[in-house]
Each structure stands twice: as C-alpha cells, then as structure tokens.
Amino acid sequence: MFVVIFRATARTLDADYSATAARLRELALNQFGCLDFAAVTEGDQEVALSYWPDEASIRAWKQHTDHLMAQQLGRERWYSSYTVEVAEITRRYSSGSHP
Hints:
globular; alpha+beta
C-alpha cells in the first residue's frame, strides 16, 4: 500500500475549490482505486493523505484530465506553494474500530 501526502499553503480556498475537491475525491475513491482519503486545513495550511494499492493507480490518477485541470488551478489560484510525497507503507497496525 502507498500513501500520497499533499501539503500546501493556501492562497485562497473559495467555493469553486470546495466543489472541485469534493468531485475529485469521489472520482479518486470510486474510479481510480483510492482506498481512503483524509484532509485537514488549519489556517492557511492544508494536509491531505490518500492511500492507494499500488503506484500504477497513483500514476493513472495523476494523469486524469480532471486532476490535471485541478492541478493547474491549484498553481494559479488556490495555493502559494505545495509539496507531494509518495511513500510505501511497510507496516500498519491499529486499535479499536479505526479503518
């Protein structure tokens, strides 16, 4: 399993951003094999974690037309900076009913 860690400093997150983010999240989860997705924003800092079964799924998602358009809008309107990290999860454990 892999995790994509997206960290950004927001310039402005408007209603268009919210609608785009919701649409892309559903697309990733329902059509590209994303296993789980969580995001949090505090002040102007955003962190999003998405979990994927393999790197091929991540690459396919990265090249999807809607995602490419969102990336462009992110650079132009929504974010002043961002980083993306992809890591392989080699161990996982949990307690209770956490997914």
